[in-house]
Amino acid sequence: MNQVAGTLSENAGEQITGMDTDELAEWFECLDDVALRHGDEQVRQLLEALQGRASRLGICRTAALNTPYINTITADDQPDYPGDGAIERRIRSLIRWNAMAMVVRANREHQGIGGHISTYASAATLFEVGFNHFFHARTDDHSGDFVYFQGHASPGVYARAFLEGRLSKEQLENFRRETPRGTGLSSYPHPWLMPGFWQFPTVSMGLAPIMAVYQARFLKYLENRGIVDTSPSRVWAIVGDGEMDEPESVGALTLAAREKLDNLTLVVNCNLQRLDGPVRGNGKIIQELESLFRGAGWNVIKVIWGSDWDPLLAADDDGQLVQRMNDTVDGQFQKYTVASGEFIREDFFGKSPELQALVEDLSDKQLQRLNRGGHDPHKVYAAYRAAVEYEDGPTVILAKTIKGYGLGEAGEGRNITHKQKELNEEELLSFRSRFDVPLDDDEVADAPFFRPEEDSDEMKYLHDRRAVLGGSSPARVDNAPSVEVPPLEDF
Ligand SMILES: Cc1ncc(C[n+]2csc(CCOP(=O)(O)OP(=O)(O)O)c2C)c(N)n1
Ligand SMILES: [Mg+2]
After folding, report:
1. Which listed ligand is nearest to 420 at the C-alpha?
2. Which of 291, 268, 280, 373 minimizes the C-alpha distance to 329?
3. Among 151, 102, 95, which residue's Cα sits nearest to residue 124?
4. How many angstroms separate the CA atoms of 322 and 319, rounded?
């Protein structure tokens, strides 16, 4: 149960015009009592019943589709993290480094060859929690998961495959180059150029979300007709928040809910930015998508705030912090990404003495580093687990991230970050230090690829986790039997 239940009635900051505060407090007490004696589900049903009653009285005819701008899964309801957080961070950091190095090196060699650094920088935790704990490979007794990776985050998938030993340094050097088949790496996911690797083409925005719905539906079809046992399979699609503006992205949402596709999880990487600007500067993309998906009948899980915020939310007795989160628009959150801790203290927390008091023990540096949910493996894991366990239909996870996370001055949260392809020596040094990549100062300027020794803890962990999940992903099995074309005279 939510940690605030049982405390709201004593310190309800809300007021209702014309109703005295004692009467309002009684209402809160009743609600707290239902939560304590019966539980979360009964509270939900009670609220629905009240809403229905109000609607019969001719009041509140529209249902609210938005919840407050906080995580759907509270800190109290979050499961323990099953992995080794420290090793996973080291592996993730190496993948971040190699993904960045691949793009930087390719562009040094051939100016203008392109590629993206910032998208994967925002999506790394969303991908890695999946790789370490969820994305199951196809094996003899598991029909395998189907993962649609956000297309322009491809360098991160290649960098992981490099650590796993599936791709060589030479292949990484050939990223985006016209090379003989099998010796290079295609810019974006596509099985045509890499038939044993990518399962699906995804980068034309909108393809992944709509194809994922049809894929999940087809798996159910095969299962329900007893053709193939696809019951262990799950379809995952990790897509951009700007991508959700494509008509294709939203075209099949109601179909997914109507057919109760509980084998489908859509993860929206909400870094609040698209090609060269904000997705919704003056609004909130996560809230907008929440109402869209909930209206279409999906299970919605918001992953907005990282663990750093848990103690602040727990101390937010009168709801002022949540109110401030609700009132702040995406453009302003982007400003905080690039602003100093001092500015955040004044502008975000400076609205009232109560808010200021919440963060008086935090330094400016800590304020600047308060993490977003999509960069916190614990929060991401909790959401993925809840999505997998949900049996009533498809789930969307709306994860708030920072575009260009870790690039600092070189582009973190800045409008130019989508196109960033080169880092100077100073920027490389600070990236190295931020993620503790074990390279000496004099090695960094060259942006070398880095792979730990095969018997290191990181490599053992990396291989062990994939072994538990049936092997490497993505992997495309190219063994579909060909069908013989009947002779023309048969027609
Ligand atoms: C249909 C289509 N139109 C335009 C593009 C060009 N394009 C590539 S990435 C991008 C912006 C992506 O923004 P978002 O989906 O938010 O992803 P992010 O990089 O921010 O994670 C655009 C417009 C494309 N790939 N596909
Ligand atoms: Mg985006």
Report:
1. 1
2. 280
3. 95
4. 5
Cα 107 to ligand 1 centroid, rounded to whole Å: 20
Low-confidence ranges of the chain (pLDDT < 70): 1-13, 61
- pLDDT score, position 297: 97
| Owning domain of residue 18 | 8-63
Q: How far is the CA of 197 from the centre of ligand 1 (A)?
A: 22
Which residues form the pocket of ligand 1, taking CB atoms under 6 Å from any ligand atom?
119, 122, 152, 203-206, 240-243, 246, 269, 271, 273-275, 279, 403, 418
pLDDT value for 223: 97
Of the listed ligands, the closest to the CA of 243 is: 1
C-beta of residue 330 within 8 angstroms of C-beta of residue 278:
yes
Let me know whether 163 and 278 are in one domain: yes
Residues 51 and 116 in one domain: no
pLDDT of residue 55: 81
Going from the Cα of 370 to the center of ligand 2, the distance in angstroms, rounded, reads 20
pLDDT tens, 331-378? 999 999 999 999 999 999 999 999 999 999 999 999 999 999 999 999
Q: Are 29 and 152 members of one domain?
A: no
Spell out the residues 6+ positions from residue 91 whose beta carbon is closer than 8 angstroms to its own.
128, 163, 458, 461, 462
Q: How far apart are CA 447 and CA 450, in angstroms?
A: 9
